């Protein structure tokens, strides 16, 4: 819910009654008995009711980003199917640091791998600007 749909936090879990009951117990065991969860749930409901249709824009932005990153020497692992672009970069930590210096946040998710995410607040122009700022960081 938080990235593509614009909610402040949140995720969804679907499953059988048994699965949900088990997940509820585990959540409580891990300290997830937040009393203010209804406030956050309201934000999630708003996001589901108002932002689902525009997810296609995020997915298109991710494909645009992947193509642009490939043009400047950063190799996406695959054509994105969602709003996440995973990139192969031997010096992932260095690339992320240089990107941050240029005002672009890209996360290291594993040795040699980076992840960039498009979302509600990232326009096509923002994607193009990020690609330009990332030119030469690889």
Strand content: 5-15%
**Overall pLDDT:** 91
Give the % helix.
40-55%
Largest sheet: 4 strands, antiparallel
Secondary-structure element sequence?
HHHEEHEEH
N- and C-termini, Cα separation: 31 Å
Number of helical segments? 5
Structural class: alpha+beta
Using the CA coordinates, give the radius of gyration: 18 Å
Please give the order of strands in the largest beta sheet.
Answer: 1-2-4-3
Q: How many DSSP-defined strands?
A: 4
Low-confidence stretches: none
- Report the principal-axis shape: elongated
Can you give a write-up of this model?
With 138 residues, this protein is α+β, with helices and mostly antiparallel strands. It contains five helices and four strands. Strands 1-2-4-3 form a four-stranded antiparallel sheet. Helix 3 packs parallel to helix 5 (124-134). The longest helix has 17 residues, at 55-71. The chain starts with 16 loop residues before the first helix and ends with a helix. The mean pLDDT is 91.
List keywords for this structure.
138 residues, alpha+beta, 5 helices, 47% helix
């Amino acid at each position: 819910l938080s990235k593509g749909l614009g909610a402040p936090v949140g995720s969804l879990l679907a499953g059988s009654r048994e699965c949900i009951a088990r997940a509820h117990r585990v959540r409580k065991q891990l300290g997830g008995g937040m009393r203010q969860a209804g406030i956050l749930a309201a934000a999630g409901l708003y996001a589901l009711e108002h932002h689902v249709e525009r997810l296609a824009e995020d997915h298109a932005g991710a494909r645009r980003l992947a193509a642009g990153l490939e043009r400047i020497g950063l190799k996406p692992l695959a054509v994105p199917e969602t709003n996440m672009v995973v990139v192969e970069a031997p010096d992932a930590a260095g690339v992320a640091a240089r990107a941050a210096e240029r005002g672009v946040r890209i996360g290291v998710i594993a040795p040699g791998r980076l992840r960039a995410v498009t979302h509600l607040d990232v326009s096509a122009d923002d994607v193009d600007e990020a690609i330009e700022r990332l030119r030469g960081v690889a």
